[in-house]
């Protein structure tokens, strides 16, 4: 069977995604009006969404085993009868669907594909033209890498959520370069084709990005290593060592400070995820971009879409997402409390400043499902809570009965970098961690690839 987090996307999630992607061509006022309406009526919208989900999936085997029937669409009955579920709880049902059982197991609507989770929720972009004038008058260069799909024993497609989303958008012409380059199975060839296309159209590019910060850093590093060959291809159409284009001379100088705006001079912002574990790349991206705004605009996972960053030009450390109440039914388990259905808090009743694990009920048949993301309430937009992504619940380091999460590790690395490296004109580009048990007590230390120290 496939990895943890396999799920399907509900109709409402697809609808929201499509409307937001189309928003770049619609008046901003209409999009803002919809957001204001949804965020002003959070509890009523959530009540309607839950009733729609339960009514839609009333004949599903899972809800039937929970004791619900078609008339049980109210919150009280739902909370009393449906337990909190993890992937392990749903795994037997998922296996049956993957093996070809077409009966209404989790959902009464046909399951057409599985989305495999990367284990890292995507905080993606959304149209920011209201904040960056002229942003959509040119092109966006996004480095996307789609993995090959697989087939379940029952013949259903199983692929990462990003791959599915990219394929769906082929007809919308949202991404450059073309799908052949994105879907190339050789990552190096895919990167080369995308970078070559981006360089050829460098004067049309107004925004540069990738889904995760690591991918964008990897793309710039690829340019650093392969600029001469890329330049030769652009100039002659065949392998040629001569470099004449001004942008390529920028690369030959050996100074990579602000290289993004020197190669793509009209770039107004970066669209990339820099929250959670991706925060380690913020300084590197600021170095390469010359301080361009970094936009982390939308929060989503393979389970469903969650919300929007209504201040897309805020600093990376200030990013908070306003949950859109029409995409799924949201509940929250206070961190530190027992995993029990009675402890779950509804979206409209979370407390400012408190940390919660997010639990979703989706149109596609996930009921009270623990996504694994821990969020902290940072305030409210109208009646809708705003959340800062804190960490993945399952990502912990433990060596001496301690519990060190990715956010604490990031803070420790930042402090060490500030104290030891920046005064020497160097910084950490990327790191991982390893357990050191040579001494007692044991401790963790960053393990740095050979190229991680950059001037």
From TrEMBL:
Taxonomic lineage of this organism? Eukaryota, Viridiplantae, Streptophyta, Embryophyta, Tracheophyta
Alphabetic keyword roster: Ligase
Q: Which InterPro entries match?
A: GH3, GH3_M
- Gene Ontology CC annotations of this record: cytoplasm
Q: Which Pfam families match?
A: GH3 (PF03321), GH3_M (PF23571)
- Similarity annotation: Belongs to the IAA-amido conjugating enzyme family.
Q: Which organism is it from?
A: Oryza barthii
Its name, as the record gives it, is GH3 middle domain-containing protein
The GH3 middle domain covers: 321-392
GO MF, one term, reads: acid-amino acid ligase activity
């Amino acid at each position: 069977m496939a990895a943890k987090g396999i799920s399907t996307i509900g109709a409402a999630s697809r609808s929201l995604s499509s409307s937001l992607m189309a928003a770049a061509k619609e008046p901003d006022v209409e999009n803002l009006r919809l957001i204001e309406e949804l965020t002003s009526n959070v509890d009523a919208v959530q009540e309607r969404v839950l009733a729609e989900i339960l009514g839609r999936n009333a004949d599903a085997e899972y809800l039937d085993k929970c004791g619900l029937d078609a008339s049980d669409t109210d919150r009280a009955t739902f909370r009393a009868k449906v337990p909190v579920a993890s992937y392990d709880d749903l795994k037997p049902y998922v296996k049956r669907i993957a093996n070809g059982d077409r009966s209404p197991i989790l959902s009464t609507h046909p399951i057409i594909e599985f989305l495999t989770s990367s284990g890292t929720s995507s905080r993606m972009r959304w149209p920011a033209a209201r904040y960056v004038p002229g942003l959509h008058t040119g092109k966006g260069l996004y480095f996307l890498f789609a993995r090959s799909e697989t087939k379940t024993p029952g013949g259903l497609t199983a692929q990462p959520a990003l791959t599915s989303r990219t394929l769906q958008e082929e007809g919308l012409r949202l991404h450059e370069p073309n799908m052949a380059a994105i879907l190339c199975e050789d990552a190096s060839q895919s990167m080369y084709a995308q970078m070559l296309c981006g360089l050829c159209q460098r004067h049309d590019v107004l925004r540069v990005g990738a889904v995760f910060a690591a991918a964008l850093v990897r793309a710039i590093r690829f340019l650093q290593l392969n600029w001469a060959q890329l330049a030769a291809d652009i100039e002659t159409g065949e392998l040629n060592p001569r470099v004449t284009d001004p942008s390529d001379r920028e690369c030959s100088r050996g100074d990579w400070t602000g290289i993004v705006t020197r190669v793509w001079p009209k770039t107004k912002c970066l669209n990339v995820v820099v929250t959670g574990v991706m925060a380690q790349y913020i300084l590197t991206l600021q170095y390469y971009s010359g301080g361009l705004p970094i936009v982390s605009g939308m929060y989503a996972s393979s389970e469903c879409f969650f919300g929007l960053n209504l201040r897309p030009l805020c600093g990376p450390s200030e990013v908070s997402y306003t949950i859109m109440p029409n995409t799924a039914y949201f509940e929250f388990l206070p961190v530190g409390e027992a995993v029990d259905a009675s402890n779950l808090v509804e979206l409209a009743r979370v407390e400012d400043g408190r940390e919660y694990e997010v639990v979703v009920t989706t149109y596609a048949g996930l009921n009270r499902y623990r996504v694994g993301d821990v969020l902290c309430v940072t305030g409210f937009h109208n009646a809708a809570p705003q959340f800062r992504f804190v960490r993945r619940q399952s990502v912990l380091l433990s060596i001496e009965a301690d519990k060190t999460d990715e956010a604490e590790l990031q803070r420790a690395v930042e402090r060490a970098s500030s104290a030891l490296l920046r005064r020497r004109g160097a910084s950490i580009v990327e790191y991982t961690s390893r357990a050191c048990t040579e001494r007692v007590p044991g401790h963790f230390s960053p393990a740095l690839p050979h190229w991680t120290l950059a001037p």
